[in-house]
Design a protein that fits this description.
about 300 residues, mainly alpha, 14 helices, about 75% helix
Length: about 300
């Protein structure tokens, strides 16, 4: 991976390593659907002036169908399921389960025959990562957790489909336009639910968590993620989830005092080893097909 690619990669590791902690704190007071609205509505409002200034409203209308679908599979459904799961399982376990995204991405890539040849070293890395996730889930599985783990698997499916839509159906749409349209559509869809589940009181801590989730972990994150996909390809970009996990697990243990379980001790090193191997083999620029490009910013 190029130096530019690693710069985006590490930036995303930090930006997307903190949401699990913030979500875990926010759902103490907020219904998961209200949290989705809190993440998406401010993001759409912040990006609207930029989209208007760039005269991208016609593009938004032309591609609205796919932008809306992207919003549902990347924001609307996954964020609700993740927030619901985090009411019952730790942020550390949640972040580690997201490590299934690169595995699903590689499967999708081979089915669709995109991005050319996948080096054996990457398959080895993804296999080791999968083994780590298997240890993690198996050693942490207790009564009642299977439902929440299943929810997280559905989140992984959405996170796998999202980059594919960006790289194919929305490759000619500017990044801010996609994020603004997608978050705006999701926010509107959640309003009826949230009117019936609006909290009576929200403290400063919860408000701060939602604000960071919206401004930093949504607006800034996705604009950076688009550049990452453009630089390294759609399936490889999803391997960022392995590095996110490092930060998420540490924050969960140190800040939220979550337990350092046997599953984490056994599975976590395998997950990180898989990440290093899965990202180490170079991909020639010529092999980056239209499937691995994203909207220009």
């Amino acid at each position: 991976m190029s130096r530019r690619g690693w710069t985006y990669f590490l930036a995303m590791a930090v930006i997307w390593g903190i949401p699990y902690l913030l979500i875990r704190v926010a759902v103490r007071q907020l219904d998961p659907g209200v949290l989705v609205l809190g993440r998406t509505a401010p993001a759409a409002l912040l990006l609207a002036p930029l989209v208007i200034a760039q005269r991208q409203l016609p593009a938004l209308l032309r591609h609205f169908k796919w932008i809306a679908i992207f919003g549902v599979v990347e924001f609307g459904v996954p964020w609700y399921l993740m927030a619901t799961a985090e009411k019952h399982i730790t942020s550390s376990l949640t972040s580690l389960l997201i490590c299934c995204v690169p595995l699903l991405s590689i499967v999708a890539q081979r089915i669709r025959r995109t991005e050319g040849h996948v080096a054996p070293r990457r398959y080895l890395g993804l296999g080791i990562g999968a083994l780590g996730v298997a240890f993690l889930v198996g050693l942490n599985l207790k009564g009642g957790t299977l439902t929440w783990i299943a929810m997280m698997m559905a989140v992984c499916v959405g996170y796998t489909i999202g980059p594919i839509l960006l790289a194919t159906k929305l490759k000619d749409v500017a990044g801010p336009t996609v994020v603004m349209g997608a978050t705006g559509f999701v926010a509107l869809c959640w309003i009826p639910w949230d009117l019936a589940h609006w909290p009576a009181h929200v403290n400063g801590e919860t408000f701060s968590c939602v604000l960071v989730l919206s401004v930093v972990c949504t607006v800034a994150a996705f604009l950076t993620f688009f550049e990452l996909i453009k630089e390294v390809g759609a399936s490889r970009a999803t391997v960022i989830t392995y590095f996110n996990t490092t930060i998420a697990v540490v924050l969960g243990i140190v800040v939220l005092h979550e337990p350092l379980t046997v599953g984490i001790l056994v599975g976590f090193p395998l997950v990180i080893t898989g990440c290093v191997l899965a990202t180490s083999s170079p991909v020639p620029r010529s092999s980056l097909t239209p499937t691995s490009t994203v909207p220009r910013l």
